[in-house]
Design a protein that fits this description.
With 251 residues, the protein is mainly α. The protein is 45% helix and 8% strand. A hairpin with a 7-residue loop joins strand 5 and strand 6. The relative contact order is 0.11.
Length: 251
């Protein structure tokens, strides 16, 4: 097992950047698990902890097994305090319905139903009325374009919709990437741990989803109903594009 040593070689020799918060958390957690006293970190300097792993290759089999157990316990902590709570809170994004739209007209236009309705429209325009995974075209939009332009109606790429097979049309929904309920956690809520760990993975992301900001297009995707259901329980994974920061790769 060489993971601790590899990590220490990776970040040793320079002051930690704020984005290395998670690595600091990882190493200090393993250190505290293996040592009798907690890691005494000075600001962002984890030299004490990294030094502890310097001679990892010469550790006895028993010491390496203890390190392996510590890493497994850390993984369990992340699962129990981040992945599972995040999954449990990932309830399906409420979709605009005729009833909710009627409520919008008789109430303040700043509520969640209104924001989600605007979000759906924004995502449909951005994603060109297609599911970002299956590329199926929105059935409602196709109907509108057919009524307006007849057989000559086209998609946003200029391709005639009549050339699409019937199974290439489906009603589309907006899906939040980070759950909508993360904006309503309390100081004693288990979801607070989710926010803290999330901010370690991506420092500053909390400010991007604070309050109404969570209903912005940067935190949402256009999906079919089937893919929306797969997306919430980690059935679909998003990866950052290797060269374009605003693009995500789906798998």
């Amino acid at each position: 097992m060489t993971m601790p040593l590899s990590f220490s070689h990776l970040i040793r020799g320079y002051k930690l950047h704020p984005k290395d918060t998670f690595l600091t958390f990882f190493f200090s957690s393993i250190y505290e698990n293996l040592c009798s006293q907690p890691a005494d970190l000075i600001d962002s300097d984890i030299t004490i902890v990294l030094t502890f792993f310097d001679n990892f290759t010469s550790w006895s089999p028993d010491e390496k097994n203890k390190a392996k157990s510590a890493i497994e316990e850390f993984a369990d902590y992340i699962i129990e305090n981040f992945l599972l709570p995040l999954r449990a809170s990932s309830v399906k994004t409420p979709q605009p319905t005729p009833a909710s739209l009627s409520a919008i007209q008789t109430s303040t236009p700043s509520g969640t139903p209104y924001r989600v309705s605007i979000l759906r429209k924004s995502c449909l325009v951005r994603d060109r009325y297609r599911c970002v995974i299956s590329r199926k075209f929105d059935k409602s939009e196709a109907r509108k374009r057919f009524e307006q332009y007849g057989e000559d109606c086209k998609d946003d790429e200029g391709i005639e919709l009549k050339n699409e097979s019937s199974d290439r049309f489906q009603f589309l929904e907006v899906a939040h990437i980070l759950p909508h309920c993360l904006t309503t956690v309390s100081s004693g809520d288990a979801d607070l741990n989710v926010l803290r760990i999330l901010d370690m993975f991506d420092p500053g992301v909390i400010h991007l989803i604070d309050g109404p900001k969570i209903d912005s297009p940067i935190n949402a995707l256009t999906l079919t109903l089937d893919y929306h259901r797969m997306f919430e329980p980690y059935g679909i994974i998003l990866y950052a594009h290797t060269s374009i920061t605003s693009i995500l790769r789906v798998s």
